[in-house]
Amino acid sequence: MTEAAKNDDQRPVPREQAILESFFTQLGMFSFDRAKDYVEKEKDISKSAGPIWASLLAALAHLAAAEKAYHNMTFLGQKLGGQSFFSRKDSIRTTYTSVFNELKKVISMGRLSSSAGSAPFLEDLLSHLSEQLCHFTQARTEIADFYEKMLALANQKSVHSEELVSMLESVLHKYSSKFHHPILSRMEGCFQLEVDVLCQLLRCQVEVCEWRFLPALLCLHAAHTKLTAWAQLFERQRETRKHLFGGQSQKAAQPPHLYVWLQRLQGSLLAKFSFYFHETLSRQTLAAEMKALTARTSPDYYGRASSFIRKHDAASVSLVFDNRGHESFQGHGYHHPHWMRAAKWTS
């Protein structure tokens, strides 16, 4: 390493850069209110700072509010903590578009400084970050539109999950590496994690409906691993609550509604997977243990089917798969990639 490079590494971080790093760290840990209060307080303190800094702080405060609405999924009309749909707030698209326009103004201010030949390092940094945040707000808008599309499809009898996967992958490809600045790394990581989990769950839906055991299992496992990594962010975060008669206590921060919804989607797919491949899975363990495991799924399809048989004295409950047009179908269960028959399947 050269002497100049060493001096760069040892150079103190500018105050504004430290503030930005702290803000996006809080945003990446889903502390939206704390992040918003932080930049608003800094804006009041830094009234004498340049206009580009004040404009960016105002945009960041609105971004934190937009992120809170996005992660609580209020743009779908559901009140936080409730199950009813009484009213819709302003469209999330309108909210992010407003933030986008504010960031565009910051970019314009930075370009004016550059054209005048007086743009210092800070203004270049703020302009560069604003450009990448513009891409982020556009990505958020498209993913929010995607969730609204999923909601609209919820009441349909059949949903083409392949099309949903293709749409989501195109959004991911479109914005890949569009907001890659190290200061934005926490935010980029959370965005990537969310979209990866959703992709894996939708792929799992496709594989289960095609009765492909191993691909569905791998998708479920990948989604579970990523959700576990996401949950660790909440476990590291502690909330301090003051009691009415003095004293205080700390508890883990509650995950946003988006995470809870993805977790429930994974649980419903696990229940479906366990039911569709019950015969294959039951060969790997004892009957009593298999019954206990399926009872933990929600809903417990196997338990409901068993109850229906006992209640109505039915001979059986059949799940029929129409394999016409599926030339690669080899039967349920695990298949070695190079074998043309199931490892534990008999015709």
From TrEMBL:
Transmembrane segments: none
Keywords: Lysosome, Membrane
Pfam families (alphabetical): C12orf66_like
GO biological process, alphabetically ordered: cellular response to amino acid starvation; cellular response to glucose starvation; negative regulation of TORC1 signaling; protein localization to lysosome
Gene Ontology cellular-component terms listed: KICSTOR complex; lysosomal membrane
PANTHER family: KICSTOR COMPLEX PROTEIN C12ORF66, KICSTOR SUBUNIT 2
Name listed for the protein in its UniProt record: KICSTOR subunit 2
